[in-house]
């Protein structure tokens, strides 16, 4: 590894302390302190969750802002990224947990309506390909809110719109997809997610992710039944002409059981009703961000995220970066706040060595508070080990 002079920094955010862009900046600063002439290319990455739009903007996409409904219905400013006719839309920008007031959860009533408004804004901007990154959601509504914002109608037994959120789906008597925005039929919609859960059941959205959104055991049962009812009602929705959503109802049961349907509180299911194609988020983003040519230029790749643990191995950004780099015969090291993987596990994932902030500062609270400064010191170690 010695003699390496071209480094690609392709790391995800350190959640709660550093954005992916800041990680790249700090690593670059540390490397240059010990190897001033090193060539560093920064390519912040994301796996479809929060931070995806920022990664796209760092890669040259234009940031577009729009006012949309937050998960509780209040108006928020959300962003998507656009380059040519390709848009990157991050559902967490509109419907993420970060859009809730501190300490407030709304597992039964939080809605994805604003995510649908973001998709509509991307259509208005001329997007023909939309990468829809989902993760970090405050919602468990199966994408019903999103679909409503795009023209679908979900009515109760009295012909009135059902209440927002997953809890309201229990009152659903009739679904009408005929009013969906016709432009959706001509768009390639890619569902980018790092999870492959189905919509319902023991591995479904409510059971696995509901508690993270404030759902009690009773709420989880309520939401699981409501989402199952949602999918059942949609099975009865026949062909809706030639536009978006045409014939989607006949595939509702298949979609509900498909990998990715349970992503972000079931918004994956709603996206599939729009014709979305599910793909591992990091794979989609590496392609969109131009990772392959950047990798070709590099001799050493530095990836990472806040915690390198078992979850990292299941579709998270560092695992995707390492797999692609290994396939190209490139050396990979990782940076992280906390390391919970054995060296042999890292090696199997394509990571030669991981450098954790806790190696320098054992106190986790200090690592979080002073992550940038400590990360620069970690990068100095990488520079000494790999570039000396």
**Main beta sheet:** 6 strands, mixed
User: CATH class of the largest domain, anyone?
Assistant: Alpha Beta
CATH homology superfamily name of the largest domain: Glycerate kinase, domain 2
Number of separate domains: 2
CATH topology of the largest domain: Glycerate kinase, domain 2
By secondary-structure content and strand pairing, the structural class works out as: alpha/beta
Instruction: Give the percentage of residues in beta strands.
Output: 15-25%
What is the spatial order of strands in the main beta sheet?
3-4-5-6-9-10
Helix content: 25-40%
What is the correct CATH architecture of the largest domain? Alpha-Beta Complex
Count all strands and give the number.
Answer: 13
Rounded average pLDDT: 94
Instruction: Give the topology string: H per helix, E per strand.
Output: EHEHEEEHHEHEEEHHHHEHHEHEHEHH
Distance N to C terminus: 9 Å
Low-confidence stretches: 239-243
Shape descriptor: elongated
Which value, in Å, is the CA radius of gyration? 21 Å
| Number of separate helices | 15
Q: Any overview of this molecule?
A:
There is one protein chain. This protein has 388 residues and is an alpha/beta fold. It has 2 domains: 6-43 and 290-386, Rossmann fold, CATH 3.40.50; 52-282, Glycerate kinase, domain 2 (Alpha-Beta Complex). Helices cover 36% and strands 19% of the residues. The protein is built from 15 helices and 13 strands. The chain has helices at residues 20-34, 52-58, 91-95, 113-124, 144-149, 205-209, 217-235, 252-257, 263-273, 281-289, 291-297, 317-327, 343-348, 364-369, 371-386; strands at 6-9, 39-42, 62-69, 75-83, 86-90, 129-133, 153-155, 174-176, 188-193, 277-280, 300-308, 331-339, 353-356. A 6-stranded mixed sheet has the order 3-4-5-6-9-10, with helices on both faces. Strands 2-1-11-12-13 form a 5-stranded parallel sheet, sandwiched between helices. Strand 3 and strand 4 (75-83) form a beta hairpin. The relative contact order is 0.16.
């Amino acid at each position: 590894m010695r003699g390496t002079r071209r480094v690609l920094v392709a790391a995800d955010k350190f959640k709660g302390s550093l954005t992916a862009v800041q990680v790249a900046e700090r690593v670059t600063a540390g490397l240059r302190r010990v190897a001033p002439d090193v060539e560093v290319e920064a390519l912040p990455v994301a796996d479809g969750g929060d931070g995806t739009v920022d990664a796209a903007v760092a890669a040259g996409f234009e940031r577009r802002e729009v006012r949309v409904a937050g998960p509780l219905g209040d108006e928020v400013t959300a962003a998507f990224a656009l380059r040519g006719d390709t848009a990157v839309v991050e559902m967490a920008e509109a419907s993420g947990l970060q859009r809730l007031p501190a300490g407030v959860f709304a597992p039964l009533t939080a809605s994805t309506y604003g995510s649908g408004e973001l998709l509509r804004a991307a259509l208005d901007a001329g997007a023909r390909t939309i990468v829809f990154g989902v993760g970090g959601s405050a919602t468990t509504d199966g994408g019903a809110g999103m679909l409503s914002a795009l023209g679908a109608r979900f009515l109760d037994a009295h012909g009135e719109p059902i209440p927002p959120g997953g809890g309201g789906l229990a009152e659903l008597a009739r679904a009408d997809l005929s009013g969906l925005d016709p432009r959706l039929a001509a768009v390639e919609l890619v569902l980018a997610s790092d999870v492959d859960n189905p919509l319902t059941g023991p591995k479904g959205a409510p059971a696995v992710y509901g508690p993270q959104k404030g759902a009690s055991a009773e709420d989880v049962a309520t939401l699981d039944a409501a989402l199952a009812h949602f999918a059942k009602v949609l099975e009865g929705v026949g062909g809706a002409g030639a536009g978006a959503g045409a014939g989607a109802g006949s595939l509702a049961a298949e979609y509900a059981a498909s990998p990715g349907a349970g992503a972000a509180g079931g918004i994956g299911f709603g996206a599939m009703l729009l014709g979305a194609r599910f793909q591992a988020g990091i794979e989609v983003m590496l392609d969109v961000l131009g990772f392959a040519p950047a990798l070709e230029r590099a001799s050493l790749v530095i990836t990472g995220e806040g915690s390198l643990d078992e979850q990292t191995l299941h579709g998270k950004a560092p695992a995707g970066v390492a797999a692609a780099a290994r396939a190209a015969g490139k050396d990979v090291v990782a940076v992280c706040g906390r390391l919970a993987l054995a060296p042999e596990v890292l090696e199997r994932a394509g990571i030669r060595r991981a450098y954790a902030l806790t190696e320098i500062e054992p106190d986790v609270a200090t690592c979080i508070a002073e992550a940038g400064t400590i990360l620069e010191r970690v990068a100095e170690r990488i520079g000494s080990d790999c570039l000396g």
